[in-house]
Amino acid sequence: MSGAARAPKTYAADLARQRDTLRETIELHPIGTIRSPYQERFAAPRQPGEDIEGEIHLLPGNTMQSALQDLDRFSHIWVIYWMHLNRGWNPTVIPPREPRIRRGILSTRAPHRPNALGLSAVRLLGIEDTVLRICGLDMLDGTPVLDIKPYLPYADAIDDANSGWLDDVGGGETPGDVRGMLDLTHSHSKIT
Question: Is the bond preceding 95 in cis, omega lying within 30 degrees of 0?
Fold first, then answer.
């Protein structure tokens, strides 16, 4: 072995060279599909939380059984998915409850986003082979799953978080009341 030192890593320079490529496309591949009782966008809840059960069927042949190791020890998981029925996006939306004020899409959870990504926290009921039984879903049947991550209460629940503009209109509303105002990404519903 020669005594020569390795050149330092140049992450910033590498990123600068890739910047134009990153602006053009990002390729994602589904790892599974949602099986849900919700067949139509209008039928799905705006937020997860109901005791509706469904399943995530992971695609075979991707060593998914190994990837699932230890996930069954968590009570909840994050599901990142593609809202496959959405077409186009709107820079502003009117959330479904009063006051009827147009809001920037990035300050809401409305589904018609620059990218049709959805995020839901669901209860993990069990895993059998490469099928995850879940509860509290708000995704449509056939929704492509892009990733799954464990929900970590110490990192994912922020005690001093506020509700942005909803604090102004919600007053002393309960979380359930506020939920209806968000018109979440998860519902795939159309917003006018």
Answer: no
